[in-house]
Structures are given as structure tokens and as C-alpha cells.
Design brief:
Chain B: It comes from Pseudomonas putida. The complex is a heterodimer of chains A (403) and B (178). Chain A has 403 residues and is mostly helical. Helices cover 44% and strands 5% of the residues of chain A. Chain A has three domains: 136 residues, no CATH class; 105 residues, Cytochrome Bc1 Complex, Chain D, domain 2; 113 residues, Cytochrome c-like domain (Cytochrome Bc1 Complex, Chain D, domain 2, Orthogonal Bundle). Chain B folds into two domains: 83 residues, Ubiquitin-like (UB roll), CATH 3.10.20.30; 89 residues, DNA polymerase, domain 1, CATH 1.10.150.120. Chain B is 31% helix and 21% strand.
Chain lengths: 403, 178
């Protein structure tokens, strides 16, 4: 009888233990997914470095900030963080030792992360290989190097991202809001910042500047004006490429590390949130005949034929796996043409997207074309496929270049 | 598409103005209008570099430009050299190859030769750059890699091309200690 009893107890004990283990596995799996959604890797992994070991330089107007080591290493990583401490770091920007994190860590968005999601992310991070290596020290100039000084900033701006009322909104919209505003922290780039680096919430998602590039407006009407529909936006997030062009510059790591790994339903939810439950119709561009274009754009047409059409096509339709189409390209439709100017002058690196899709490197033309030629080319692109006037001046180009 | 006049200097000879289509690719202009068929159309998308020609800039520098993805009118007013322009011909009709061409032949640098015009032009640009500013010994390998590495060769690999280029740079006294 005693043997039977202890066998039963052992079996029960094992069952409880394996249940707990199954729960752990599920939590770690969920945490991995959420870490993708929050795109922790983009900032906490250096180019070519070990995952989550930190070291990526993040250039800000206040100096260079380095992503920290968030592997489970006890010396240099977060191996000694409790779930409470991790939650405080993620949502309040508080380090284990009480020091303030710089708001390059997007706690202004993450402060709305649910506790169970934070716990799951920590559970996942505790399973990645610990890397016993310090990330480079962030050294900002005075007064920005005084972390204590951020206490006041945090009181004013630490919780600046707030969710919109969900009344009358679809479940997809509600899920999309959490994925876009909190996990995806899209507003950290796509919302303009004030002179002391705080998000201007009254202009949320209306576009921000980042390293001389425009993180364009994600407001529904602006997206629709640039040709976006919900299915296309979902495709863009999933594959990094759609009829509207491809992700480049700072947006490329987003698809690479984050959005391509997300579930279709979540991506569709993000598109639903951004474009709304009743999305505005995508604007159609009326073709403009060459004769109707500005003199500058007419000259630009020849520039386009000279150095662009070889890959983007005389008709602007692009070439598969070589170069994206200009016809329908969302970048051409931005009335602020700085991204177009930057792409033409600096070029774009070779890019790999999901599956076997890739695009060739685009050469930069900064030393090949003078300002007048770039201006003419931009005006042609604006008029031919952007639905915009071809009225950019050389002076305006110089300003866009300088920023 | 409309035609427009094109005028340029090709292998030292003034050409044009001639009317050519405004969207004509330079490689087609060389092949079809000038009967200069030495520049090779490989990938047609700017990757293999078999089609490159040399453009001589007004400041005395020279650079390679891909003709498969560049329109003929980009070369308006420019001085262009193609693979046909390097060898010198004497009155008897005998050819003297340029140092790079000769060394590529001597060292069997290429096999099928499809990529060779591009390699000749790229290596010639490097030699001319070194003639203006000799290379430090320590940077020679990197400079050769930067000049030739993006050209695609699928027969011999790059060892003999690199060897030949290195030899020419040394033989012409274009490498200094450092």
C-alpha cells in the first residue's frame, strides 16, 4: 500500500512539474514573439554581433548612445534582474541600480506594456546565450551625460504615448493599436520630437526626422494619399516590399528583425489601426504628359533616362529582383522630397527580403550629378509618378541636403 | 521616344553630333552605332561590370562607368575610352597592347575573355590613379580588391588578374614603401 501511495505521489508530482514546464515553454515562446514585436534586437544587437549583446551605436542629436547587453550574463547583461526590475526598466526607463536609462530606450511607448508581456519577454531573454562582454559606454556631452537630469524629463514626458479610446473600434483595430503604439513603438520615429527630444503627442504619427531622413506620416489620410491600402500595408510589413516600394534606411532593420516574424493577423491589425476601420480610398495618380511638366522636370526626364532607367525602366515599372518600380512608389509621393534626394545622392545598400526576394544595391549619385541635375530629376519623378508639382528649386534642394 | 543629338569623344576621336534615341543604352550605342563590340553585355543590370568603359574627367582623373545601365546621353560632352582604345597601332599595323593588357596575356589572367574588357578598363584606371599618386605598399592589395573585386569572373578566379595588376604596378614603379 505504501509503495502504491508513493508511486501515485511521484506520478502526481511529475505531472505537476511537467505542467509547470509546459507553461514555461509556452511563456518563453510567447516572449520570443513579443521580443520580435517590440524589436528589441534592432538596438540591442550590433551589426554582425551576438544577439542581444548590445553595442549598436544609436546616433541622436545629443550624442551617440549604445544599445546595452540584455543577454542573461550576470556581469554585463541582465542576468541579475528580477521580473520587477525588468518591468521597471522596460516601462519606466529605470536601470537595476536605479539610474535613469536614456530615452533611446522607448519606455515612453513601452510604459503601456502589459506586465505578463514583460514577464514573457524576460523569460525568453533568459534563454538566449549569455555574452560576457560589456557594450561600449555611452558618453554624452554635458548636460546630457547627467542621467539624474532625466528625472524631470521623465516626469514630463516619460509616459507621453497614450492610447486612443477603443469604443466602437474593431478588435483588430484595438490589437493593432497595442502592436503599433506600444510594442512596435512606431511613434518613436514617426512622431516629431521637440528640441529636448520628447515626442510631440499633439502631432503623433505625423512624421519625424531621423538622421536626415523623414520617417513619413502614418496618419490614415496621409497613407492613403501616398497610395496605401490595408492589404498593401500588411504585405509591406510582412515582406518589406510591396507595390509601393521597399523598406530602406532605418526601416529596413524593422522588417528584418521584427515585422517579417509577426503573425499575419497581427500585421493586418496594425494596418487596420493605421488606416482605420473605414480606410480612406488610396489616391490614384493621374499621369502627366511630358509636355505638361515644368521645364526642370523636362530636363530631369533626360537625367532619368541617363542614369535611372537602366534599372527602374524607361516606363518606371522597375525590374524584378533588381530595382523597385517608380510608378506607384510611395517615396515619390511625399511632398517633402528629402528621402528621394537622400536615396538619389547616397544610394541604397543591397537588400534581402523574405524568401528569395532581394534588390540590387543602388549607387549614389552625389559625386555624379550636380544640384541642378538632382533637382531636375526629383522634379521629373514628382510629376511623372508622384502626383506632385515639379517645383523644387535648387535652393530648396540645398536645404534638404544640408539637414 | 524622341531623338536628340549626342556629341562625345570616343577613344580620342570627336564623334557627332549625331541624332540618337534619348533612351538608348550606352552599350547599344557602342555596339550598334559605333561598331565597337568589345564592351561586353553580361548581366545587363550593372552587376558583372563586363560592360564598363573609362570616362576621363576634366580634372585629370579617370573612372569606370557601366554602359549597360547608363544611357548614351549621360556621356554627352565626355571623353570616353573603350577596350578598343588602349592598344597603339604603328604604321605597319602592328599593335602594342597597354601594360595591363600585355600582362593579362602573359600571365593567362583570363580564359573565356568575356569579362576581360571590364577588368582591363578597371585595372587601367587603377594604374592611372597610381601614376598620379603612387600607392603605398601596404595598401596595394586593398586597392586592387577595391578596383577589381566587384568585376565578375567565373573562369580563372581572380588570382591571376590580381597577380598581373600587382606586377604592372610594381614594374612601372608605382608602389612605394609604406
Amino acid at each position: 500500500m505504501g509503495i502504491v501511495r508513493s508511486t501515485l505521489a511521484l506520478a502526481l508530482g511529475l505531472a505537476v512539474a511537467s505542467l509547470a514546464q509546459a507553461a514555461d515553454v509556452a511563456q518563453v515562446k510567447r516572449g520570443e514573439y513579443l521580443a520580435r514585436a517590440a524589436d528589441c534586437m534592432a538596438c540591442h544587437t550590433a551589426e554582425g554581433g551576438a544577439p542581444f549583446a548590445g553595442g549598436l551605436p544609436i546616433h541622436s542629436p545629443f550624442g551617440t548612445i549604445y544599445g546595452s547587453n540584455i543577454t542573461p550574463d550576470k556581469q554585463y547583461g541582465i542576468g541579475n534582474y528580477t521580473a520587477d526590475e525588468f518591468f521597471a526598466a522596460v516601462t519606466e526607463g529605470k536601470r537595476k541600480d536605479g539610474a535613469n536609462l536614456y530615452p533611446a530606450m522607448p519606455y515612453t511607448s513601452y510604459h503601456l506594456i502589459k506586465r505578463e508581456d514583460s514577464d514573457a519577454i524576460l523569460a525568453y531573454l533568459m534563454t538566449v546565450p549569455p555574452i560576457n562582454r560589456p557594450a561600449p559606454q555611452t558618453a554624452l556631452s554635458f548636460p546630457f551625460n547627467v542621467r539624474l537630469g532625466l528625472t524631470g524629463w521623465n516626469m514630463l514626458y516619460g509616459k507621453s504615448v497614450q492610447l486612443q479610446p477603443t469604443e466602437g473600434k474593431s478588435p483588430a483595430w484595438q490589437r493593432g493599436q497595442y502592436m503599433v503604439e506600444v510594442m512596435g513603438h512606431c511613434g518613436e520615429c514617426h512622431t516629431p520630437r521637440n528640441p529636448i527630444g520628447a515626442l510631440q503627442q499633439d502631432q503623433r504619427l505625423s512624421g519625424g526626422l531621423l538622421g536626415g531622413y523623414l520617417a513619413p506620416s502614418l496618419l490614415a489620410q496621409d497613407l492613403a494619399d501616398r497610395g496605401w491600402t490595408q492589404p498593401d500595408l500588411t504585405t509591406f510589413l510582412k515582406h518589406g516590399i510591396s507595390a509601393q516600394g521597399s523598406m530602406f534606411n532605418e526601416m529596413f532593420p524593422v522588417v528584418h528583425h521584427s515585422t517579417q516574424h509577426l503573425q499575419d493577423a497581427d500585421l493586418a491589425a496594425m494596418a487596420t489601426y493605421l488606416l482605420g476601420d473605414q480606410p480612406p480610398p488610396a489616391k490614384q495618380i493621374k499621369a502627366v504628359a511630358l509636355e505638361q511638366m515644368s521645364d526642370s522636370a523636362k530636363r530631369g526626364h533626360q537625367q532619368y533616362l541617363n542614369v535611372c532607367a537602366g534599372c527602374h525602366g524607361v516606363d518606371g515599372k522597375g525590374k524584378p529582383h533588381i530595382a523597385v518600380a517608380m510608378d506607384g512608389n510611395t517615396v515619390l509621393r511625399q511632398s517633402d522630397s528629402r528621402n528621394l534626394v537622400k536615396a538619389i545622392r547616397d544610394g541604397i545598400r543591397e537588400q534581402q527580403f523574405t524568401g528569395f526576394e532581394r534588390m540590387q544595391p543602388m549607387p549614389g549619385f552625389a559625386d555624379k550629378l550636380d544640384d541642378q541635375q538632382v533637382t531636375d530629376m526629383v522634379n521629373y519623378l514628382r510629376q511623372a509618378w508622384g502626383g506632385l508639382p515639379g517645383d523644387l528649386t535648387v535652393q530648396q534642394l540645398a536645404e534638404l541636403k544640408a539637414e | 521616344m524622341a531623338n536628340r543629338p549626342l556629341q562625345l569623344t570616343l577613344n580620342g576621336q570627336p564623334v557627332g553630333p549625331v541624332e540618337v534615341p534619348d533612351d538608348l543604352a550606352m552599350i547599344d550605342y557602342l555596339h550598334e552605332h559605333q561598331n565597337l563590340t568589345g564592351s561586353r553585355l553580361g548581366c545587363g543590370q550593372g552587376i558583372c561590370h563586363a560592360c564598363v568603359v573609362i570616362v576621363d574627367n576634366p580634372d585629370g582623373t579617370s573612372e569606370e562607368v557601366r554602359t549597360c545601365i547608363t544611357g548614351a546621353h549621360y556621356f554627352e560632352g565626355k571623353k570616353v575610352r573603350t577596350i578598343e582604345g588602349h592598344a597603339k597601332q604603328d604604321e605597319a599595323g602592328d599593335l602594342t597592347l597597354n601594360p595591363i593588357q600585355q600582362k593579362f596575356v602573359d600571365l593567362f589572367a583570363f580564359q573565356c575573355s568575356y569579362c576581360a574588357p571590364g577588368f582591363v578598363n578597371a585595372a587601367t584606371v587603377l594604374v592611372e590613379t597610381a601614376q598620379r599618386q603612387p600607392l603605398k605598399k601596404s595598401e596595394v592589395e586593398d586597392r586592387i580588391e577595391a578596383s577589381l573585386g566587384h568585376h565578375i569572373c567565373r573562369c580563372t578566379g581572380y588570382v591571376r588578374y590580381y597577380d598581373a595588376t600587382r606586377t604592372v604596378l610594381n614594374d612601372l614603379g608605382l608602389v612605394k614603401e609604406g
